């Protein structure tokens, strides 16, 4: 490469978020540009800072198209992310760009760039676009500079993927395999319905499974509207909603409330969230949904409080009962209604299959996605911060409902407020997974991990450098390092489910691998401590 390097930055759609996060983005860009200069190369920013908007992000697909029309099609291009970003703001330009593409994130949990970059990488993978990727704490370490130099010399970056093992190279225990195959065949035979409340949340192209791929698994979408959800909320009487709050209060859940709806969680917001919970169950029952996903975000965020408290309760078997408005029948009695946060359909397929498999194995079936948010060493182990705004069931938390609290969601993301379902995930053995689309194929990575309990002071520190209102999981991935997960993982999200111990977790992983394979997915087992042999 001899020409200038062009730099672009995809941002949020929400002006408040872009303004708040811009200083961190600016700092990261300056460090990246300095790293290029250290290697003798000049970086040209592909779009200017907007003094009226007070940020320098590409903040819409429209703006992105304007920017890419001015960038030479064959020029080397680097996408720098220190924030959560909407991938569709730049995906169109990256689709047709002829030059080499490098995605870069700062190793920080603050806004966070890691999550944004992983989503963009997964979207590019689904689209079949070639790219390289890097990450760094300060952009001065040997790992970053060495690989950046290789990229500048025109060499594709090779990351360590020795932790990835195709399922075809491993032997599955016969009993676990039989369970997995049985559950998959049942899904093929009976088929199931995925309720999608508006598709394509926050530009997450990677989170949309094309119908022709999804249908092969036996799962079919019921496309629902968030406007219908809002309308259904308005038909729920106050006394029914108040009963949901009373049920949660009786379970010992804490609500951190105040009087200012702009900055604090109010009783009125909790009442509206309770109405949403009732409305979701009634709509899901009407359409026969086996799993549902609410987009929330654009549109609904301006009309109603956050869906996150609702999502976590839906994912819990022990939850407030809701009756059908017509005949008083208890809806989904004795069961969770698996919910996939941010309508991530890959998590929806994974979550439903996991729920049914764990039921068949006699395990607690509650499962959820998290963001791969951040991570640091602690006492000689690399401990991930898995953290998400919603969908985490109380069953996953230390103390269950009694260990859970609800705090107002950050105003820059959630103008109408609403509470989270906050807590610390209990220690134990888990199976992690991710379904993703890779250039026309439906794939799944699976692995094993342990959840550890850190001192309260360390948990608080990690919350304070990420998002303290959200539920957190301290996870150690077996046989998968920080850089290996970053290099391979094809999503900002990771699915997790608990088992009783290491032995049952290994059996569950094997059963899940067999089920995914039976559904036609290309399966890989990542890492170690899984009980499988070559």
Helices and strands in order, then pairings?
Elements: E1 5-8, H1 15-38, E2 43-45, H2 61-68, E3 77-81, H3 91-96, E4 101-106, H4 113-127, E5 132-136, H5 142-152, E6 164-166, H6 174-190, E7 192-197, H7 211-214, E8 219-224, H8 226-233, H9 238-250, E9 254-255, H10 267-287, E10 291-294, H11 297-300, H12 308-314, H13 345-360, E11 367-378, E12 381-387, E13 405-406, E14 428-438, E15 441-451, H14 456-464, E16 472-477, H15 482-488, E17 493-498, H16 502-518, E18 522-526
Parallel strand pairs: 1-2, 1-3, 3-4, 4-5, 7-8, 7-10, 9-13, 15-18
Antiparallel strand pairs: 6-18, 11-12, 11-17, 12-16, 14-15, 14-17, 15-16
Helix pairs in contact: 6-13, 6-16, 8-10, 9-10, 10-12, 13-16
